[in-house]
Amino acid sequence: MSATLPPSRLRRRLAALVALPLLALTACGYGSQAQEDPSTQQVAAGAKKIDGLDSVKIGYFGNLTHGTALVGARKGFFQEALGGTRAKYQIFNAGPSEIEALNSGAIDIGWIGPSPSINGYTQSGGKSLRIVGGSAAGGVKLVVNPNKISSLKDVKGRRIATPQLGNTQDVALLNWAAEQGWKVDAQSGKGDVSVVRTDNKVTPDAFKSGSIDGAWVPEPTASKLVAEGGKVLLDESTLWPDNTFVITNIIVSQSFLKEHPKAVDAVLKASVDTNKWIKAHPDAAKKAANDQLAVVSGKALPANVLDPAWKSIQFTDDPLASTLDAQARHAVKAGLLKNPKLDGIYDLTLLDKVLKAAGESPVDDAGLGVK
């Protein structure tokens, strides 16, 4: 976007771009299509294929909240665990398109946020996917223009961006606004706060132009806004018990889980090993994630964005099931979801097996596991 455009034209162009994600969502229900991750590792000579599979197709976002997948792909953890079976990767930038890919068999396993997991499961009548592991928590902030907003009460009457209608951050903002006693129409975003659905790629320019006053967004978008002069007004983690909530899970198609449990077990082992390595080597892990971002997006993050963003994300094997359940209730309260039946959305059997072998404790499915 040209920096030489007059301010009035820049604002009009940004306004048009801001509207695009909502129009796309209402028109077809899916986000943009996946792109292939070109990174590959050598399959070890003589290594055996798992379950006779030539490949396992793994999906994730080119986003720091998917840091386990970024680092695991970059450092070869997935390929090592899969032996003679090739790890193949697809990159997404919208949850609905990843769910579509999982349903069609274009991917087998994916890293994804809680809201698309809930939507994918409920829309299929509980037949499409299972959540089989956790990946990351936190990393979401309300960043505002400090010249316009100096306190939480000042958010009323302002234009606040979220990434997409009904996505995880959109639900969080709507729920928080309701808790302040403010009324917002969930579908239109109009009310005591104007919720402006804006693609994360557009949000920094919209913030700079003044067409939005702040944004409830995940990392690294939050840190990009801070680098542009924004102020963190609220870290969403402070709203949750124990200051933690799920931001990224691991899902698998139910058919793939049933037919190839050994392959799912291998990917989960690689994920647990990756998270362990991330915690033991934080600086090297941060660099690996950024190097992989450069591969899949064409551009690495500058240090003033990367460092604070990485620090605010917690990498965890625990899917934090109780917080996903709470997020579903928030979506129901906002009018974006109708009484979802989440029983059976989790199958943590293989994860608990992997954790036990690693000397770790099992994790809880909040009563939403397969019976």
UniProtKB/TrEMBL annotation:
Subcellular location: Cell inner membrane; Periplasm
InterPro entries with a match to the protein in the record: ABC_SsuA_sub-bd (IPR010067), NrtA/CpmA_ABC-bd_dom (IPR044527)
Signal peptide interval: 1-34
Taxonomy, superkingdom: Bacteria
Keywords, comma-separated and alphabetical: Cell inner membrane, Cell membrane, Membrane, Signal, Transport
Major subcellular location class: membrane
Keyword Disulfide bond: no
SUPFAM superfamilies found in the cross-reference section: Periplasmic binding protein-like II
Annotated family: Belongs to the bacterial solute-binding protein SsuA/TauA family.
Protein name, entry field: Aliphatic sulfonate ABC transporter substrate-binding protein
Organism: Streptomyces macrolidinus
